Each structure stands twice: as C-alpha cells, then as structure tokens.
Amino acid sequence: MSEFDLKALWQSTEQTERPEVDPEIMKQRAQAFERKVWRRNALEWVAAAFVFIWFGHDAIGSENTVEMVGNTLVAMAAIGIAVYLYLKGRIKTTSDPTSDTQTYMKAHAQILFDQARLLAGVPLWYLGPLSLGMIVLQWGRMPTDGQQMGAWLSVVVLVTAVFLGIAWLNHRGAKKLRHEAQMLLSELDETSPQ
Amino acid sequence: MDDSRHKALFQALLDDHGAALRRLCGGYERNEASRHDLEQEILLNLWRALPRYRGDAALRTWMYRIAHNVASRHIHKEVRAPIPSGNDQRAKLQPASGLGPDEAVVQADARARLHDCIHQLRPVDRQIMLLFLEDLPQKEIGEITGLSQANVSTRVHRIKGELTRMLSE
User: Fold this and answer.
1) A62: left (phi over 0), alpha (psi -120 to 50) or beta
2) Could you tell me which CATH number the domain at B1-89 has?
C-alpha cells in the first residue's frame, strides 16, 4: 500500500464531519470550569476558617492553660496550612498546551513531580502542625479519674488513626504521581536524540 | 479579544479543521464515550487558549499542538484509570458513500485495520503518524512534536513501513 493510499484511507473515515459546537456553550463551559477552580480554592479557606473559629472559640473557653495552648496551636495550624496551600497553588499547575509536545510533556512531568513532593510532604506541613496542637490539646484534656479515661483514649486512638490514614493515602498518591511522571519522561527519553 | 471575534475565530477553526480534529480523536481513542470526552476536552482547551493566540505559529500548527498535547495527557490518564474495552469504533465504521457494497466492505475493513495498527503504535509514533496521515509536511510535524525534521523524517519512514507491512499481512 502506497503512502497516498494510506492517507486516502485514513481521510476517508466516517468521522469527517466537523464537531457541531455552539460557541456560547463553550463560553459557558469555560466559565463553569473557572468557577469550579475558584470554588475549590474558596473551600480550602472556608475549611481553614471553620477550624480556626471552632478551636479558637474552644481556646477562649479552655479549662486550663495547656488545653488553651493546644486549641490555639490547632487554630493557628489551620491558617498556616491554608496559607501554605495558597502559596503552593501559585506555582504553575498546568503546562502551556500551545507549546510543542516534547516541551509540554516535560513540563507536565515536572508538575507531577512537584505535586508528588507536595503530597509526600503532607506529614510535615499538614499533619505535623495539626498533630502538635492535638497532642498538647489532648494532654490538657487528659482526665484525672479512671472513668473518663476510656472515652479520652478512644478520641486519641481515633484521631491518630485518621492522621495515619491521611498520611498513607497521600503517600500512595505521591507514589502514583511519581510513577506517572517517570513513565512520561522515559517515553520522552526514547524519542531522543532530537 | 472581544467576544464576537473569539466566537468567530473558534467557528472558523472548526470549519477548517473540525473534521481533522474528529479523526485525531479517533486515532487516540477507540471507546466512543472516551472519544467524545476527549473531543470536548480539546475543544474546551482550544476555546480557552484562543484569546492568547498571537499568530506566532500558523493557526493549524497551533491547533494541532493543543489537540495532541491534550490527547497525550488524556491517554496517560487512562493508563492510570483504564477504560473497559468494548463499544469501540471498529463496529461503528460505516461504508464511505459513492462505493459499491463490496468495495465499501473492503474499504471499511481496511480502515478498521488501519485504526487497529495506529492504536498499537507508541504514543510518540502515533502522534507523528496521525499528523502524517493528515498530510502535514514534516517541518510542521516537527514544530508540533518538538522533534527535529530529520528525526521526524526517519520515524515517518520507519512507521510507514511498519503500517504497510501490518496492513498487507
């Protein structure tokens, strides 16, 4: 089969009609996409504000100084995490689709590595500050009589399990992203030399 | 870019290259639902990027860059979350009009085999081949892929040979 036969065969596929798209609908989709990104970012701040108000309020009504310090630390950690995410969010999260494929895929792989680093660092920048506050808080709330000890221990175990679960999920996510980025780069390597 | 110009340019882009975009999606995706998703993703990216088009590259080159970049990412996403096979486009191939029944069947079968062969190519080779089959010059293929013209030329020669051999078997 000649080169011309191949091209003619390919171009004779039934998918020869252009997609029928109303530009107004595309405009609405693009706006919806931007609103989605905005809502996702806003949600991070709302969550941080909620935790800040909750634990801040508890700090004011704390029964002892240790509990007050613990509540304050958790409240401050929530704001710290939101600021950290905001600053990280300003780093490029999408590569320029108008660049050539080699450049685009390299940039995309780099973004995946950055995201993997962020996820792998969750125990440090997310769980670390929150854990510190929670440890101090639980220390301040430690009951003196044996009757309440069971309930207190249950809370400690539950919080620890949730934190370990978060750390594990993020570790797994980071591993997947790194694998994907490495696959991309290995494919690009095979295309060298340019 | 004002709204009416944005819309007009988008329509013109689809008028000139819409059919090629459809074929491109078919070259990357066999599953009908995924192909539709890919097409929508490409169109959305084109729409969003259009106001930034400054004419540094030809509109066709610019469009193919976006389309292939989005498609390349799309197939990598599917490596992470594979879509069950079935409902592929092989079954959907219709005979081209203007042909007799026998010729149409032969052509539909050859097209299905060509699609099969293209789907077996590595992503970079597939991209090069899809651009080649759309009759783009090797220089332009190089501008889209980021490979040198010499590299494109060597690859086109090799892949073409492979495809011809596979189709003749």
Assistant:
1) beta
2) 1.10.1740.10
Check B92 against A14: CB less than 8 A apart.
yes
> From CA B59, how far away is CA A21, in angstroms rounded?
19
Which of A3, A21, A16, A1 has its CA nearest to residue B94? A16
pLDDT at B105: 79
Q: How far from chain centre, in Å, is Cα A69?
A: 28
pLDDT at residue B86 tops 70: no
Q: Hey, is the C-beta of B1 within 8 angstroms of any chain A C-beta?
A: no
Q: Find the mean pLDDT for residues B106-132.
A: 88
Tell me which chain A residues have a C-beta less than 8 angstroms from the C-beta of B45: 97
Contact A55, A75 (CB under 8 A): yes
CATH number of B98-169: 1.10.10.10
DSSP bridge partners of B31: B88
Predicted model pTM: 0.79
Q: Closest partner residue to B151 among A13, A15, A194, by Cβ?
A: A194
Cα separation, A159 vs A138, in Å, equals 10
Which of these, B47, B42, B91, lies nearest to B68 by C-alpha position? B42
Domain positions in chain B are 1-89, 98-169
